[in-house]
Amino acid sequence: MKTPFALSRSIRTLAPLALAAALAGCSMAPKYDRPAAPIDTAYPSGGAYVQQAPGTPDAGITADIGWREFFRDPLLQQLIGISLENNRDMRKAALNVEAARALYRIQRAEMLPNLGVSASGVSERLPADLSTTGNGAVLRRYDVAGVTAAWELDLWGRVRSLSDRALASYLALDETRIATQMSLVSEVANAYLTLRADQELLRLTHDTLATQKRSYDLTNQLVEAGNSTQLDLRRAETALRTAEANHAAYTRQAAKDGNALVLLLGKPLTPELSRQLDEAVSLPADLVPADLPSGLPSELLTRRPDIRAAEQMLIGANANIGAARAAFFPTITLTGSAGTASASLDGLFDPGSRAWSFLPQITLPIFRGGALLANLDVSQVQKRIEIANYEKAIQAAFAEVADGLAGKRTLDDQIRSEELLVAASQKAYELAEQRFQEGVDDNLTLLDAQRTLYGTQQTLVRTRLTRLNNLIHLYKALGGGWTERTMQSGATAQQPPRLQVELSRAYSTPPRSRNRKQYRQVLNLNQGASFHEER
């Protein structure tokens, strides 16, 4: 049993350590408050926008639609799957996250004591005038430190603030990885639809070229029979050469579209995929859902990974202010070692050779030429910059959704009108051809009808492509494309191991459910594992 004196001495010894541990939890970073979103509480309304009926599901439905359910074309689904596995931008984004996670672990390690083992041997000769005996001597010393420790007492939260900044950078890069995936899904879909549209235009041009060739041959026969003029023949030839030039241009453009798609996929096309793409010579209108609930603008804050990444950068800048403030205060470092020491190597482990050292050090900045104050100013300005970046990301997301909603209704109306225009142009061409063969009208009327029909058909294909691209952009703007399968509420599954549970919470749950505590749990559970293994 300890005596009162021994107990009192233990309390005096432990009290400073307890106080240091309590102060180590302090932070000089300002309290983080999310800036108000600089956007309206509702999307624009008016003649260009579709008014949502009451009770329409919110944007969470759109954001949780898996890309395999959104894109209904099996070939496109296959292409997107290939790109997510092989695209180099996706690999780079994943590796950036892996590097940021390692940097965070490095910075977090600064909060813990550094422990190690060391051994050393020193031999030196002292001249006579430096020796205490007045004679030159050779001194030898051998040390084995079983434990060496070094630890900075983080009284003002400097190390913790730097750790929080590294964590925010890691989280921001992970959100950027998700945004990269969403962009890649959208880009592959756009490239695929562009290829199909240009191949449809190529087929349309091929048919028009055949028609112009027949018209030229017929006009040439009429000229030879004396029933037409050279002017009519030259007009027919002009239309023919124009169709030939258009055919060559669309052939080249379709090839370039294929090359762009291969670049996004990250690997060459297999013969089977090439065959299927060559056969995709039309642009279906029902490739993606036509109805996408827009929800409320405030939901963009939790659904858009680019906005979440911008907020994490703001959180990191806020933490950096805490580190800059803490630099004005003293730095206390504790270093020590315990082991054995001897003047001879064979007596290193003899009884009585035990040795220890304890070297506390305190450093107080007095004069740095204004560097510390300038560093604080820089960190505060950087926070204001990140606030501007965060607000800009919100405004850009709002504008993208508003543009998509405006295009949704107007493009549908435009397509309906252009379809009627194509039908009218087709009828006019048929009548002009009939009247030309009967000799009622000249060749000029037929050529004008052919040119008008061809132009309206081209315009309709391009507008249909614009409509599909607009729906894809709206799907991405509302936060869609981050998951392969549609998220089902209340779904149950077999309970996986604890590590997989934590990883699933951080990487597989809807992005709005993420929090910093879950990321810390994942990092603690999975030290040293690769990012690809986590996924």
* Separation, N- and C-terminal Cα atoms: 55 Å
Which strands sit side by side, in order, in the main sheet?
Answer: 1-2-3-4
User: Based on the structure given, which CATH architecture is correct?
Assistant: Up-down Bundle
Number of domains: 1
| CATH topology category name | Outer membrane efflux proteins (OEP)
- Quaternary class: single chain
Q: Please provide the count of β strands.
A: 4
Count of DSSP-assigned helices: 15
- The low-confidence parts are 1-19, 54-60, 489-515, 518-535
Strand content range: 5-15%
The fourth-level CATH homologous superfamily is Outer membrane efflux proteins (OEP)
Order of helices and strands: HHHHHEEHHHHHEEHHHHH
In short:
The chain has 535 residues and is α+β, with helices and mostly antiparallel strands. It has helices at 4-24, 59-64, 67-70, 74-86, 88-109, 158-224, 230-265, 271-279, 300-303, 305-326, 371-437, 443-477, 498-507, 516-525, 531-534, and strands at 114-126, 137-153, 331-342, 354-363. The chain has a single domain, classed as Outer membrane efflux proteins (OEP) (Up-down Bundle).
Description:
Helix 7 runs parallel beside helix 12 (443-477). The protein has a single domain, classed as Outer membrane efflux proteins (OEP) (Up-down Bundle), CATH 1.20.1600.10. The chain has 15 helices and four strands. The longest helix is centred in the middle third of the chain and has 67 residues, at 158-224. The relative contact order is 0.15. The protein has helices at residues 4-24, 59-64, 67-70, 74-86, 88-109, 158-224, 230-265, 271-279, 300-303, 305-326, 371-437, 443-477, 498-507, 516-525, 531-534, and strands spanning 114-126, 137-153, 331-342, 354-363. A four-stranded antiparallel beta sheet has the order 1-2-3-4. By secondary structure, it is of the alpha+beta class.
